[in-house]
Design brief:
Blueprint (H helix, E strand, L loop, with lengths): L1 E6 L2 E5 L5 E4 L17 E3 L18 E3 L3 E6 L2 E9 L10 E9 L2 E5 L9 H7 L2 E7 L8 H10 L2 E7 L14 H5 L7 E3 L2 E2 L12 E3 L7
Parallel strand pairs: 3-4, 4-5, 9-10, 10-11, 12-14
Antiparallel strand pairs: 1-2, 1-13, 2-3, 6-7, 7-8, 8-9
Length: 217
């Protein structure tokens, strides 16, 4: 499995079988350059412009945007778990989906715009995780200290921050990446991509920052 960040909360998950899963594509108003990324499946956590721009994905990918269990192939499963975009039961910003991808003996989650501590039921469905893509910027989502707490609750072996203020989202009222990474004793490892196999997890960093490809292309 190869994980790469396109920008914001848009990640690409590539499997050995060739299956490509894309998360939360954004539109041009997000601030990151929109780079066409081919995918077989697109996961959409909620309907906001910076997470649901499926029209930017070439071809005719399968779109998953409702809670439920999905079998993409005999050995690839996706579970979409309903959560909220805020800590008011969705009253402020609506619902949000948490995605669990199970493939190649790995459990990887993308939390979309999670806005609250996960419930006991949500933790039970997700944990333990080999890797988690987690929002850390606050204001629209959980903030940096809460994100660290959530990653611990979910027993995440690798923590991949997303949805933070960067050069592309300079005007956004959200926190910066270092406000999250500074909470950890270890230095975050900056990577172009993360290659995972079930047998090499002991060699992986606990905290990793995947450099946005859209800012490098």
């Amino acid at each position: 499995m190869i994980l790469s960040c396109i920008g914001h909360a848009k990640f690409l998950v590539e499997l050995e079988s060739g299956l490509r899963i894309l998360t939360d594509p954004y539109d041009p108003s997000c601030g990151y350059p929109v780079t066409p990324v081919a995918a077989d499946v697109v996961l959409v956590s909620h309907g906001h412009h910076d997470h649901a721009a499926v029209e930017t994905v070439p071809g005719e990918p399968r779109i998953i945007k409702e809670a439920g269990k999905y079998t993409l192939s005999p050995d690839v499963k996706v579970t979409a778990i309903e959560a909220c975009h805020d800590d008011k039961g969705g009253a402020q910003r609506g619902k949000n989906l948490l995605f669990l991808i199970e493939a190649e003996g790995l459990r990887v989650a993308h939390l979309g715009d999670l806005g609250h501590l996960p419930t006991e039921e949500q933790v039970k469905a997700l944990a333990p995780l080999d890797a988690v893509m987690i929002p850390v910027g606050g204001f629209f989502t959980i903030d940096a200290p809460t994100a660290k707490q959530v990653a611990e609750m979910l027993q995440a072996r690798i923590v991949l921050p997303m949805h933070y203020r960067s050069a592309a989202t300079e005007g956004w009222p959200i926190g910066t990446l270092d406000q999250f990474t500074s909470l950890y004793a270890e230095k975050a490892e900056e990577l172009d991509l993360l290659r995972l196999t079930a047998g090499d997890m002991a060699c992986q960093p606990h905290l990793a920052v995947l450099k946005p490809q859209s800012l490098r292309d």
